[in-house]
Amino acid sequence: MIKNNPKFMYEQIAQDLSERIRQNAFPENRLPAERSLAEHYNANRITLRKAIDLLEKDNLVTRDGTRGTIIGRRARHGHENMIIGFVLVGRTRLDPLHSVTIMELEQQLKHHKSNSMLFSITDEDEIDQVLVPAIGRKLVDGLIVTGLVPPETMARIKRLNIPAVLLGHLLYSSPIEKQMDRVCPDSTEYSYQAVRCLQQEGRKHIALINGPPYLLFTNIYHGYMRALNEADVPYEDALVERCDDDSSAAAMGAMARLLKKHTPDAIFIGSERMLPGVMATLNAHGVQYPEELGIITVGVESDEHLSNKFIKFVACDWHTMVRSALELLFARIDNPNAPPRMITIPFHIVNNST
User: What is the mean pLDDT of residues 154-173?
Assistant: First the structure.
């Protein structure tokens, strides 16, 4: 039954029905009769029809004059009337990067008269619970997979036989990566350029606050080392701190440990998720920036944490990233047997002070 909340009654009914559809609660692949649903939700027929209008607008159901309200949607034409699943793996909440990506995806899909559907899975076991019912009911035409994606999870998704694109890196290097269409930033190159930016300011002792040994952060470390080597700067282990995860709390501890060992004149933070923790520690220790410490990280221009004019950051081109992911996905839908492709997206360094 529907609980009281600020939404209109028909919106509440539509939300409840959409959840029941995804949970495979209607085994006959159609909704019950309007009269039955109206009684179930204690609503009148007009309210119920407005709820079904919302489901039809989202392409979850199709009204058929003879068969009733069918779960699924009308046949698509070309790349129109599609539902693209955005699968977030291993993250319990949306961070700014993923929020921007979803908004960009929805905006670009509008040009194709299509929509997105968000799925969140924490581990491989949830694939059967979350993705398989939606795929089995043909509610999605393809998947964009991102987040903390282990190779085993990507291999399991690949076996679902639905077009899929990997957005970003897998957690660890694996042969399955080369079997997938991929869109990713060159994290080794942007790390190198970030450190070079600090070096060009005259910074000599550049620290690295990095994440766990995932492929992304391993690449960031390689870029950091490359910049040091090219500048003939000796590596100092005391200037590198690795976190158990890329959270703000982990970064607070890493920054505190770093300050006990060394006082750098610049720092590269490998993830925007770690930035608030680093900033909190610096503020608690009274470290002034950019006078005492130059800071550069990775992020998106809409992130409020990056509004500080003294913080530089690597900004990837998310419009191009999403457009490239859709390009690969549409091509895979049209030609399932084509060889896998990889697209590397551009980036630039943002200097808020200028």
Answer: 94
